[in-house]
Write a structure and sequence with these properties.
By secondary structure, this protein is mainly β. Helices cover 6% and strands 38% of the residues. It contains four helices and 35 strands. The chain has helices at 152-162, 308-316, 379-384, 554-558, and strands at 8-20, 23-30, 39-42, 46-53, 61-64, 90-96, 102-108, 118-124, 138-147, 171-174, 191-194, 199-206, 212-217, 222-227, 230-237, 239-242, 247-253, 260-268, 281-287, 336-347, 362-367, 370-372, 401-402, 418-420, 423-427, 431-438, 447-451, 456-463, 482-483, 485-488, 492-499, 505-510, 522-526, 534-538, 549-550. It has a six-stranded mixed beta sheet, with no helix packed on it. A hairpin with a 2-residue loop joins strand 14 and strand 15 (230-237). The longest helix is centred in the first third of the chain and has 11 residues, at 152-162.
């Protein structure tokens, strides 16, 4: 545990030896723990964390899904709200929990350090209040991650240098352990000890670097009651699909004959031809008492690795609780309409270099064809102190050129993005509708998206190209899920709505999903420094090819 209530904590980021898969290596940890310590707070509390970097690399810590009202300085993404904490350095973060209630997580937000630097955040209801469901007998964080035998920084350096996909992990993990199906792992498999006839709350968090995961428990139904620290209508399912960065609160009833039952997780991988980790991680739900157990434990059903319908149908079934105690406030009077394309891209290989991307290129990624370039100082500092030359404000509200985004065959000319540090300025108090349009450039795949500083309502999604006249007719404006992370479906689109009511810097993370998207986060900034201050959403820069349609044809295309 890091801390409780309004205490301050002193945490150390340090190298610690850990043994997995028959070999030992040093990994970056917080306070020597992997996964890292859990932070327990109650809704409305504020905690202070002093981070001391005793590791060998720059680090920042991000509080994923915590809105940080009017306190963007503590959000954590490097070169956006702060410069990284250098080895030997310290940084104090004030973490303000305002409207969040449920499960979130914290993690490193620099290079690939979050592979091992992460932990759960559990936000209890305010004192004197309770859950909107019967109080569970007990609750447990369930962190779904992965493990490389190789040093994680070697993995990073290798794929940044060669421009190809990162080496796939050697194992998936549940609470840091690979489970029975991997070598040298059986004795350390995580066990969830339960009593017969009880209800347990599982706080499931996907801390994986890239993969959407399917998760299930043998012979036990999972009832979802919350997502991304917001309560949802109870949804009973045999499995869940959970994106990188997403959290799901779920109840299970221990109503099966006493025994041992596997919980298991494996990858959903939609990118055709992309290598992926096809292994399965397991943990054991172990009933207390005397009985003759099955050997081996029962295995659960999990959808096939490429079952797109299983993934999107689960996510599309989520609904906000939307009752008198937990009402929704879905924005309706839209003042700012945005459309961002989310793409895998390629960049030319450097002279006299050999690259492992398609056709000898380097893989990249973009929003509206702009691949984000880290500045030399953080965007928030430059904005706050009016330092010129750090970022531009020309991020487009719509794709600068329009084509059939989800066609099976697209010109190679479309794959080249521009690179830059561009932001989108939004007025404080704007009511934003953002359509996230996936493209089939390079490799059509799902794209998990995370918005810093704001939660958003997912009012619609679909396959193909977004139709501005037809698709809004099917929006859910009654009880859409309130999330901070959502996967844009392969060859599809997702529409989110939110209000810009949190001045500061808001980052739009295009989290990678089975492609080497190292160069492609997007960002946003809102400031409270000056009167009539504005905000921004930073993303990447725009590409051009002579055969593309001009921006003026956007409305015509989207309506066809």
């Amino acid at each position: 545990m890091i801390m409780k209530h309004k205490a301050a904590a002193y945490v150390e980021v340090e190298e610690t030896p850990y043994t997995r898969l028959c070999s030992t290596k040093k990994i970056l940890t917080v306070n020597g723990q992997f996964p890292g310590p859990t932070l327990y707070v109650s809704k409305g509390e504020t905690v202070v964390v002093d981070v001391y970097n005793k590791g060998n690399y720059n680090i920042t810590i991000h509080w994923h899904g915590v809105n940080m009202p009017r306190n963007p300085w503590s959000d954590g993404p490097e070169y956006v709200t702060q410069c990284p904490i250098q080895p030997g350095g310290k940084f104090r973060q004030k973490i303000i929990f305002s409207v969040e209630e449920g499960s979130l997580w914290w993690h490193a937000h620099s290079d690939w350090s979050r592979a091992t630097v992460h932990g759960a955040i559990i936000i209890y209801p305010k004192k004197g209040t309770g859950y909107p469901f019967p109080k569970p007998h007990a609750e447990f964080p369930i962190l779904l991650g992965e493990w490389w035998k190789k040093d994680i920084m070697e993995v990073l350096v290798e794929f940044v240098q060669n421009g190809g996909d990162p080496q796939i992990s050697d194992a998936f993990t549940i609470n840091g352990q690979p489970g029975d199906l991997y070598p040298c792992s059986k004795s350390e498999t995580f066990k969830l000890l339960v009593d017969y006839g009880k209800t347990y709350l599982l706080r499931i968090i996907n801390v994986d670097m890239q993969d959407i995961l399917f998760f299930s428990i043998a012979k036990h139904q999972i009832t979802i009651v919350g997502t991304d620290a917001s309560y949802s209508k109870p949804l009973a399912r045999d499995y869940i699909a959970i994106s990188p960065g997403q959290t799901i609160d779920a109840l299970i009833q221990t109503n099966q004959p006493p025994g041992h039952y596997y919980m298991a997780a494996r990858a959903y991988s939609s990118a055709e031809g992309a290598e992926y980790n096809n292994t399965t991680t397991t943990a054991i739900v172990q009933y207390n008492g005397n009985y003759t157990r099955s050997s081996p434990p029962f295995l659960p059903f999990l959808p096939d690795y490429n079952d797109t319908n299983a993934s999107v149908n689960f996510t599309g079934s989520l609904r906000s609780l939307a009752d008198k105690d937990y009402p929704v406030d879905v924005p309706t009077n839209i003042t700012t309409q945005l459309v961002f394309t989310v793409s895998v891209n390629t960049l030319p290989c450097s002279l006299n270099k050999t690259c492992e991307g398609p056709n000898g290129t380097r893989l990249s990624s973009s929003l509206n064809n702009i691949s984000f370039v880290n500045p030399k100082i953080d965007v928030l500092e430059a904005y706050y102190y009016q330092i010129n030359g750090v970022f531009g404000t020309r991020f487009p509200s719509f794709p600068p050129f329009v084509f059939n985004f989800t066609a099976d065959y697209l010109s190679l000319l479309l794959e080249l993005p521009n690179k830059g540090t561009e932001v989108k300025v939004l007025e404080y108090g704007s009511v934003v509708e953002l359509v996230l349009q996936g493209t089939n450039l390079v490799a059509g795949t799902d794209h998990p998206i995370h918005l810093h500083g704001h939660s958003f309502y997912v009012v619609g999604w679909g396959f193909g190209n977004f139709d501005k006249d037809k698709d809004p007719l099917g929006y859910n404006l009654v009880d859409p899920p309130l999330l901070n992370t959502i996967a844009v479906p392969k060859k599809g689109w997702t529409t989110i709505r939110f209000k810009t009511e949190n001045p500061g810097t808001s980052l739009v993370d295009a989290l990678p999903s089975r492609t080497s998207l190292y160069v492609g986060n997007g960002h946003g900034v809102h400031s409270e420094k000056w009167p009539n201050s504005k905000g921004t959403i930073t993303t990447a820069t725009s590409g051009h090819a002579s055969m593309l349609k001009p921006l003026s044809m956007l409305g015509e295309f989207l309506s066809n």
